[in-house]
Specification:
Blueprint (H helix, E strand, L loop, with lengths): L2 H8 L2 H22 L1 H6 L5 H25 L2
């Protein structure tokens, strides 16, 4: 599969839904680990870390799907 078609496919339908689920679950767990003090003890919350903690699992999941699609024949 062509790279651009694989990316379009990875960002649609069930693949997109799975990436969003991964983003929510993994991002939430990582935020609890990385910013537990801010969430539970009133320390300042780092919004850049918060955003990146959700974006990275989404990108990793999407990359995995894209990679599998371009190598599938």
């Amino acid at each position: 599969m062509k790279s651009s078609v694989a990316l379009t496919t990875a960002l649609s339908g069930a693949y997109l839904a799975r990436a969003i689920v991964v983003m929510i679950i993994v991002g939430s767990v990582l935020n609890l680990i990385n910013q537990g003090e801010a969430l539970f003890q009133g320390a300042p919350l780092n919004f850049a870390k918060l955003l990146l903690t959700y974006v990275v699992p989404f990108c990793v999941s999407t990359y995995g799907t894209w990679s599998a699609l371009i190598t599938a024949r």
